[in-house]
Design goal:
With 206 residues, the protein is mainly alpha-helical. Helix content is 46%, strand content 10%. The protein is built from seven helices and four strands. The strands form two sheets. Strands 1-2 form a two-stranded antiparallel sheet. The chain has a two-stranded parallel sheet with strand order 3-4. Strand 1 and strand 2 form a beta hairpin. The longest helix is centred in the N-terminal third of the chain and has 36 residues.
């Protein structure tokens, strides 16, 4: 009952409440991002959701559009400013995902939506992470987030999918608040794992 009906109602109510309560914060962040990093303030990227249906994920941008003399974007570590690092460290860049939750693309809790280009590299078992809506936070995020290796990360994702309950969601929300306040469980300065998943999986195949 919770998985099929109540969880979606839970997402609708909390995401709408979050948008209303945090609207002043969202507006201030939108202005700051425009001033410090340029336009547009929002970063959008296609990600696979439930049943691998692709949707557009919304985040506040955290990097500039600086380019070299040939017009190519500079490396991420150069374009990621001090302000951008702060956004990522505090997870404030993730707040626009509340609109993804309201739309039904995402859930508050679930496996994080990864890149579309990773889809061909999942095993049959790993694909089950898409049996539920992806989340703003999840079991992997409260147990190490991007500091986890891929195998551990997927193990947590599948544990969540197989044992999803109201009690687990409440526990993950509480743990997420603690992680955000402590700014722990992230790699410094980047919203990436140690290695891209497709690169990691290709390396395993050699």
């Amino acid at each position: 009952m919770y998985r099929k009906f109540i969880k979606r109602l839970f997402d609708l109510l909390l995401s709408l409440a979050g948008i209303i309560v945090l609207l002043p914060v969202l507006l201030v962040l939108w202005v700051l991002v425009r001033v410090k990093l340029g336009s547009p303030a929002l970063f959008t990227q296609e990600r696979p959701g439930k049943n691998e249906k692709v949707f557009k994920l919304y985040k506040f941008r955290s990097m500039t559009d600086e380019r070299d003399k040939n017009g190519e974007l500079l490396p991420d570590e150069i374009r990621l400013t001090r302000f951008g690092r702060l956004l990522r460290a505090t997870s404030l860049d993730e707040l626009p995902e509340l609109f993804n939750i309201l739309k039904g693309d995402m859930s508050l809790i679930g496996p994080r939506p990864l890149l579309v280009r990773y889809l061909p590299y999942y095993t049959k078992e790993e694909r089950h992470r898409h049996d539920v809506r992806p989340g703003l936070t999840g079991l992997a995020q409260v147990n190490g987030r991007n500091a986890l290796g891929w195998e551990d990360r997927f193990a947590y994702d599948l544990e969540y999918v197989n044992h999803l309950t109201f009690g687990m969601d409440i526990k993950i929300i509480a743990m997420t608040v603690g992680k955000v306040l402590k700014r722990s469980g992230t790699l410094s300065g980047a919203d990436q794992t140690v290695a891209d998943f497709d690169v990691y999986r290709k390396g395993q195949e050699k």
